[in-house]
Design brief:
The chain has about 190 residues and is an alpha/beta fold. Helices cover about 25% and strands about 25% of the residues. It is globular. The longest helix is centred in the N-terminal third of the chain and has 41 residues. About 35% of the residues are buried.
């Protein structure tokens, strides 16, 4: 993608991978999601992550749904300015839509995340690569959160068609993933110290 700025290159890749995901979900989404959930469960058992605080997200559109436990057993992000704060909803319906249409835990019916405890953060992405780079929505919320939570285990959750065969462009503030889980694989991608 010669002659494109990094910002334009990322924007183009977002559009390409968003379209690939949309077509894939329409054709194979149900079976792929079932296989992906099986891989999430396997990863949790193999990595002793069953008792950690599990942070997930509520999917938007054809985004992968990483939720394999009851909603009240996981923490979900809430946007606070330019930051993400994770909360565990006290009931399964204790969510409200934010300005982006993303469901967040309701402020008056949620327990806050404990930053000093172990945590696994299932992270949304439009594209990931084998170096642990990810392209998200472009707002930087997860990159900023990970800067303040360096010990959190970062797990990109995507369909296999969202894994780029080429290295993705990265900027200085982009935070690496530790693992990628898809419907076809579980891959350790980063050996960063945590």
């Amino acid at each position: 993608m010669e002659n494109l700025s990094l910002k334009d290159e990322k924007s183009l890749l977002r559009n390409q991978f968003r379209e690939k995901r949309k077509l894939f979900v329409a054709e194979q989404g149900v079976a792929a999601l079932k296989a992906l959930h099986a891989n999430i469960k396997k990863w949790q058992l193999d990595n002793s992550a069953v008792d950690d605080q599990i942070c997930a997200y509520r999917p938007v559109g054809d985004e992968v749904d990483p939720c394999i436990r009851p909603l009240t057993e996981m923490f979900f992000p809430r946007i606070d300015g330019k930051n993400l704060a994770f909360f565990r909803p006290l009931t399964a319906d204790a969510f409200t839509a934010n300005k982006y249409g993303i469901l967040e835990p309701s402020p008056d019916a949620a327990e806050p995340f404990q930053p000093k405890k172990g945590a696994v953060v299932f992270t949304p992405a439009l594209a990931v690569d084998s170096l642990g780079r990810r392209i998200g929505s472009g707002l930087g919320f997860y990159d900023h959160f990970f800067q303040g939570a360096p010990k959190a285990v970062r797990v990109g959750v995507v369909f296999h068609i969202q894994v780029s065969q080429n290295p993705l462009p990265a900027e200085g503030w982009d935070q690496l993933l530790d693992w990628i889980i898809t419907d076809k694989m579980i891959l350790r991608v980063s050996r960063r110290s945590s």
